[in-house]
Design brief:
Layout lengths: L3 H14 L5 E4 L1 H8 L3 H11 L6 E6 L5 E6 L3 H15 L6 H13 L5 H16 L5 H18 L1
Antiparallel strand pairs: 1-3, 2-3
Length: 154
């Protein structure tokens, strides 16, 4: 049989999993009643198993009307993947040179690529946008491919 801390953690994780946005607001008394434990045990679980280094932000208010708000923060790799995926989706035949330049600047500014990588990517983009022999779809594929490659190696 699991110990009380494991039961509390499992309950909180279950509540988090049911939310689309990775946030849950619970009442300490509701958890204590559900699991038959003391509120201090809930505090212990929150302070040891739902910490910032484990990807959680916890806000707690005690007393009447008190609550526990737990937010699961995506890790850097998840955020990075979402950024690159979003950028690839925005590259179309109508994408301007300025928009591509802004994307590479953003990646560099947020340290997802180095200044050298940003410079090289912009050189390639400049060549693509000035090319008169490449079809628009080929240019789109090249820029999307460049973003995919940068994502793999950053």
């Amino acid at each position: 049989m699991s110990n009380i801390a494991d039961l509390i953690e499992a309950y909180i994780r279950q509540q988090l999993a049911q939310q689309q946005d990775g946030k849950v607001e619970l009442r300490r008394t509701d958890i204590a009643d559900k699991i038959s434990c003391a509120p201090s045990q809930i505090s212990y679980v929150l302070s040891t198993r739902f910490t910032q280094d484990k990807g959680f932000v916890v806000e707690s208010r005690r007393g009447l009307g008190g609550f526990i708000r737990i937010v699961q923060v995506p890790d850097r790799a998840q955020v990075k993947n979402m950024i690159y995926e979003d950028m690839r989706g925005k590259i179309t035949g109508d994408t301007t040179y300025g928009e591509v330049e802004s994307m590479f600047h953003y990646l560099q500014q947020h340290e997802l690529i180095t200044p050298r990588e940003a410079s090289l990517a912009m050189q390639v983009a400049t060549g693509l946008f000035h090319s008169t022999t490449m079809e628009t779809e080929e240019k789109v594929q090249m820029i999307q491919g460049m973003l995919t490659t940068l994502e793999k190696f950053s």
